[in-house]
Design brief:
The complex is a heterodimer of chains A (226) and B (167). Chain A is 61% helix and 0% strand. Chain A is mainly alpha-helical and 226 residues long. Chain B is elongated. The chains are: A mainly alpha (226), B mainly alpha (167).
Chain lengths: 226, 167
Amino acid sequence: MFWTGSTMLSPGRRDGNRPRPGASHPAAMEVCLMENATVEDADLVRRVLAGDQGAFQHLIERYQVRLFALARHYTQSPVEVEDLVQDTFLKAYSRLESFKHQSSFFTWLYRIATNTILDSLKRRGRSPVQTVEDPEMVGEPADRAVVRPDSGMENEEISRITHEVLQQLPDIFRVVLVMREFEDLAYQEIADMLGISIGTVESRLFRARARFKQKLLQMYPNFAGA
Amino acid sequence: MVMNCKSARSLVPGYLDGELSEAQAAPLRAHLMDCHDCRSVAQEGKALKGWFVDERPWGVPAGFAARVARRAFAGDTGAVYAESPREAEGRVLDFVLQLTAAAAAVLIALSIGISSLERPQSNRMRADDLTFEETMRRLEELNAEEDRKGAPEEQPVDEPAREDDSR
């Protein structure tokens, strides 16, 4: 299974009721590994700025899997995914001098990736950030409950269905669902990324889930519960 | 303090997302233990979250990192995405607007140029530029000048033959 972005971004939310991803690892070891990664990133960044192309290739190899995973939530075209990730790294390189080491390199890179993706959605005539939430888009919550995926289903099949449904949602809802459910971002981080309030994140997530459920049951009525 | 169903249900999504403080989560948990309906809401929310898994097969294209690093060091600052039909339409509209503006500017310049051709190109004044008073003054000056030079001899004028009244 590939990375889903669960450990790098949000040190601030760990005092909540969320079970910590990767909690089976000894905490001290995890902190140590993250510190090592940060030190290595800082060293690689310094070498890139000094003109070391190999160091930049190393940085790309380190984070390319995560960024491909992120971009794949937004488009099903492999070519488009590759373009988005490539663009993210090229932008990161051109702005590397502005990286002040105030956050981890990946947090900084992730922000560039998110902006690149949102920008590409906007350029394609969609506007996930600014779109006004009109009632037409929200939809009434389905009366029927949705069931948990069948334990007999392969994760690959669940994933295929989920992304099929996600593709049917307006970007305004898909973005918050991806950030919350796949990227494991806290409400505050989503708010910061999208430039909206936490209250708006909450209400948008609520509507997004209602819409997801509605679409899922519309496309796969057999997943309706009692 | 006992939590009511309305408050509990507004907290359920935050609870499932791990966003509640322990001070908020504890009374909610207590309420969920006692309230079947709210517990069903929470369980359905949890069931929905079970759908968000991503295990589709995929891979990073071979040589991706080396290729992108090479492009970055060659000065590429980011790909330009294939433009959408809306963007293409916008570009055509921009072009048409620019063309229209340029044509308007040329027309204005031409009209100014043409009108300036009709104006005198030197400091010498022409008669059609003089006002009535100036014209009269100029004519008087010309008369005075001719007087100084001497009036031209009067040309004999053939008088019409007078009709012979004696007839």
